[in-house]
Write a structure and sequence with these properties.
The protein is 74% helix and 0% strand. The protein is an all-alpha fold and 104 residues long. Among the domains are: 1-28, no CATH class; 66-104. The radius of gyration is 30 Å and the shape is elongated.
Length: 104
């Protein structure tokens, strides 16, 4: 008995499926079952389509910026870039200290 037979037999033991006419018809069919025309497997083309759709959706949500918006974004970057640099330096410092503790 192959693995698929054991799997189907295990499912067929469920009380609800024993009385389900669709499941009984599925088990009793003699012909080959129809092949799937499309699968849900992840492919590179599917992932590219997904990113394309996300980009299109984001393009519809966003709007053109006025000059005042550009100034606000520049000011925001002026404030946040130094914070990011400090975070990077602190991370580097903590990694260096951990390395020094390991070699002692």
């Amino acid at each position: 008995m192959c693995v698929n037979d054991r799997f189907v037999n295990g499912i067929a033991k469920h009380p609800d499926l024993q009385t389900d006419p669709s499941f009984v018809d599925f088990l009793e069919v003699d012909d080959d079952l129809p092949r799937a025309t499309s699968t849900s497997a992840l492919s590179s083309a599917g992932v590219l389509r997904l990113f394309s759709r996300v980009g299109d959706s984001l393009g519809k949500i966003t709007y053109k910026m006025d000059e005042s918006d550009t100034v606000i974004i520049a000011f925001f970057l002026f404030l946040t870039v130094p914070i990011v640099i400090i975070q990077i330096l602190l991370t580097f410092l903590s990694i260096t200290l951990m390395f020094l503790c390991l070699i002692q």
